[in-house]
Amino acid sequence: MSNPEEETPLIHIVNVTKTYDMGAEKVHALRGAGLDIRKNEYVAIMGPSGSGKSTLMNIIGCLDTPTSGLYNFGGSNVGEMNDNELAAIRNKQIGFVFQTFNLLARSTALHNVELPLIYAGIPAADRRERAEQALANVGLADRMTHKPNELSGGQRQRVAIARALVNTPSIILADEPTGNLDSKTGEEIMQLFSELHRQGNTLILVTHEEDIAAHAHRIVRLFDGEIASDVRVDNPKVYARTS
Amino acid sequence: MFRLHELREGLRIAFTAIISNKMRSVLTTLGIVIGIVVVTLMATVIEGLGTALDNSIKSLGADVYYISKWDWFSDEWWKSRNRKEISLAEARQMQEKFTLAEAVVPVVQAWQKTMKYRNKSVKGNVIGTEEAYLITSGVVPEQGRFFNDLEGSSGRPVCVIGHDVANTLFENEDPIGKTIKINGYSYRVIGVFEKEGSFLGSAMFSKDSQSFIPLPNFYRVFGNERSIDIHVKMGPDVDKEDAKAEMIGLFRQIRRVPPADEDDFGVNTQDFLKKIFESVVGTIGVIGFLITSLSLLVGGVGIMNIMFVSVKERTKEIGTRKALGAKRRTILIQFLIEAAALCLIGGIIGIGLSYPLSLIIDTVLPSSMPLWVVGVSLSISITVGLVSGIVPAYTAARMNPVDALRYE
User: What total number of domains does chain B contain?
Assistant: First the structure.
């Protein structure tokens, strides 16, 4: 693909550090990480617990800001943004998929998917149509009025994915998306991700499972708050069975 | 900028949250409920007192003066004791000379006399007066009519009775045309006054237990040594203060009061009833205000507490909403709405409880719950909700999304 947009990275991280002040001692979660992610990449971020991958994910997701270093998202410096600007970026540019799904328990699937559109100020009729479309795209057209406790784990995660996609974000940020699913359902979710990637979405996957990371086209490994390796995957796993 | 859809989402969240915690929500609002019950009942009582006052002073018109030996509302009542009686002759002179008045009527009263019809009897005041009493009192009989000038001056044995007298003596009969005995003398009933009710338990100014007979008849039955009251209704176009001064001057002249002396008669108006009313309302108001403020304060603290619990319980939800793009303001509004909605429910329950209670009050003191009180109560409830919700809502709004998402 010779897309001119590929020349400018969507995510441009240079020498980012993050230090948590835990009273007496300082915890260095990131010690100068650098990373570029272009449009339509499918990246897995890996690392053992304490490696800083959650911190990196929070920073990429604009849930947190770096202590030092540069983070440009789509050309804007995230470090200089105020709370409202960060909220707007999260709303419009980033679709989150969480390990624990994080659906509103008392709301229907449809309302859960509508939520980012509500925060974006989309009118009700338009909102409903887009939310229904998003649910249909993940194969849940017949589950729209169900509440999370009436859905299986895989279906819940599909609702969450529909919610992440509904605002047509620049990146989809999935944090251990299969961590709470059995391997078969997990595989179905990974297939859905591969499909989304083929449709042109940019995916960032945070995981500690090699098997899951194998679906990505690029694997970034963190260790002790630094990028330990960053490799392309030549034959990403597609439609494969879990071993 | 405030957005309508944020408000709608806030309302939706608030009601789902409240409904899923029904028992907790209702218990939390108890303080608000009590506060609203007190405030509505207080308003109902004050309203009822006002109505009672209006009914009582219906016969005491705003521009009517009562010249009497006694001052109705005076700290120095003993001064009146040695005053000279007001005679019918003095009243007649006033009638003749005081031209600023629309009506000048002599009224004389005998206390607690027996009225009888067959085997039933009742005690009440008997009043001797004449036709113009209708003008000064401003009321007309509900049934029948008042006696006319001819009947009055010729001393025909006719009477007009108060509502309670009619009810007691004539349970299932039409009183008009029947003959009753007043202090042993026979009178034909020609009219019945409508019910006036009493004010603060006093029927002193109510016609309900009284009967009215022509002046000559009164003198025949009760003698002529009683002091007369003169009811003066001012003409429609006169300046009230000037007319009052002139009236006093004229009556001093008639009574031959030396210029340096104080008036040897009282000039009364309905104002004194208003003074009593105001002091009673003032007391009720102060007590009611204290109880209301106290229970709203307790209620507000309860709401604040439950809102802190609610915020804590939903930390992860707050994190999720922030990750999906909710701004601080959105979260703030969400929890403020929840607190206001909780209090609003308390207010509605309070009004719901007050309504049957106001019906009970109505049996003692004719009154109804004024509609404006509903509006005021609901506004108070919402205000308490917003005030007590602000700190918990602010806590929720400034939560760090990373920490909130990690919270289990």
Answer: 2
Identify whether residues B51 and B97 lie together within a single domain: no
Residue of A64, A107, A115 lying closest to B324 (CB–CB): A115
Task: State yes or no: pLDDT of B53 exceeds 80.
Answer: no
Ordered structural domains, chain A, with CATH:
38-62+83-232 (3.40.50.300)
Single-letter amino acid, residue A236: P
The parent domain of residue B26 ranges over: 4-55+275-406
- Residue where one domain finishes, among candidates B269, B286, B317: B269
What secondary structure letter does DSSP report for A64?
S
Judge whether B315 is closer than 8 Å to chain A, CB to CB. no
B263 plus B282 within the same structural domain: no
Contact across the interface for B330 and A163, Cβ inside 8 Å:
no
Share above pLDDT 90 across residues of chain B, in percent, rounded to a whole number: 48
For residue A214, the 8-state DSSP code is: T
Selection from B19, B94, B125, B34 nearest residue B267 by Cα = B94
The verdict on a CB contact (< 8 Å) between B401 and A88 is no
Q: Has residue B76 got a pLDDT over 80?
A: no
Distance CA B366, CA B356 (A): 14
CB of B323 within 8 Å of any CB in chain A? yes
Residue B25 reports pLDDT greater than 60: yes
Q: Is B293 helix (H, G, I), strand (E, B) or coil?
A: helix
pLDDT greater than 50 at residue B299: yes
**ipTM, 2 dp:** 0.92
Least Cα distance to A172 among A240, A94, A241 occurs for A94
Instruction: Return the number of other C-beta atoms located less than 10 Å from residue A186's C-beta.
Output: 21
CB–CB of A84 and B405 under 8 A?
Answer: no
Interface touch B325/A120, C-beta < 8 Å: yes
Of A13-22, B91-100, B182-191, B279-288, which gets the smallest average pLDDT? B279-288
Considering the domain architecture, whether residues B230 and B81 belong to the same structural domain is answered as yes
Query: Which of the residue ranges A4-13, A31-40, B6-15 has the most confident prediction, judged by mean pLDDT?
Result: A31-40
